[in-house]
């Protein structure tokens, strides 16, 4: 059985009913409605994943679009999710959620440099953060966690409706030599290792 992120079946049902009603008015509109229903179901799909056995797991499906140092010196790795990618986000490491904060902002394309000004939700787990960035079409970020929740590597922690980026701000001590990916690489949420633990000698590209 296929699982879907919260809200997916509701939106798909509304679209399906609208397309069925449109049959008597316009066959073309009905076909468009059915196609929209299929798109919604595909967008909200939530498949099970084999979790990375160690290191820092990707928080999202997509392509690595950001690798940089934050002002506090910690390394940030961002993953851009296209409309074709799964948009359920997962914990990159195990920890305890200390805060979940929302910051209003613009809705620039999530792959652009200006997207840092977009609406964001930051899941602060103390040693590391997951920053969920809304894209130009996305209007809602849906966290699944709240302060005090314990998460394990690969746990579902959020989803974003229709387009976005998910960044991991790595714990202090990680540097570029620990990365197992580079910009442009495709990654899978919970499954692809973005970085090995500092001091681990064997590092294979994902």
UniProtKB/TrEMBL annotation:
GO molecular function, one term: carboxy-lyase activity
GO biological process, one term: phospholipid biosynthetic process
Any Pfam family the entry gives: PS_Dcarbxylase
Listed InterPro entries: PS_Dcarbxylase, PSD-A
Entry keywords, A to Z: Cell membrane, Decarboxylase, Lipid biosynthesis, Lipid metabolism, Lyase, Membrane, Phospholipid biosynthesis, Phospholipid metabolism, Pyruvate, Transmembrane, Transmembrane helix, Zymogen
Transmembrane segments: 20-44
UniProt-recorded name of the protein: Protein sorting system archaetidylserine decarboxylase
Species this protein is from: Halomarina salina
Lineage, highest ranks first: Archaea, Methanobacteriati, Methanobacteriota, Stenosarchaea group, Halobacteria
């Amino acid at each position: 059985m296929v699982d879907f992120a919260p809200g997916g079946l509701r939106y798909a049902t509304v679209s399906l009913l609208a397309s069925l009603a449109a049959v008597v008015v316009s066959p073309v509109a009905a076909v468009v409605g059915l196609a929209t229903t299929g798109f919604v179901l595909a967008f909200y799909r939530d498949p099970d994943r084999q979790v990375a056995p160690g290191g820092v797991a990707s928080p999202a499906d997509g392509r690595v679009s950001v690798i940089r140092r934050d002002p506090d010196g910690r390394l940030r790795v961002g993953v851009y999710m296209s409309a074709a990618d799964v948009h359920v986000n997962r914990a990159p490491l195990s920890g305890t959620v200390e805060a979940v904060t929302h910051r209003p902002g613009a809705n620039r394309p999530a792959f652009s440099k200006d997207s840092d000004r977009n609406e964001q939700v930051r899941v602060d787990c103390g040693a590391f953060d997951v920053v969920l960035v809304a894209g130009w079409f996305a209007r809602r970020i849906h966290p699944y966690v709240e302060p005090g929740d314990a998460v394990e590597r690969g746990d579902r922690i959020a989803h974003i409706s229709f387009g976005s980026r998910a960044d991991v701000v790595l714990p202090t001590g990680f540097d570029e030599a620990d990365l197992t990916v580079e910009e442009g690489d495709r990654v899978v949420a919970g499954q692809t290792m973005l970085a090995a633990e500092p001091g681990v000698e064997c590092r294979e590209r994902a």
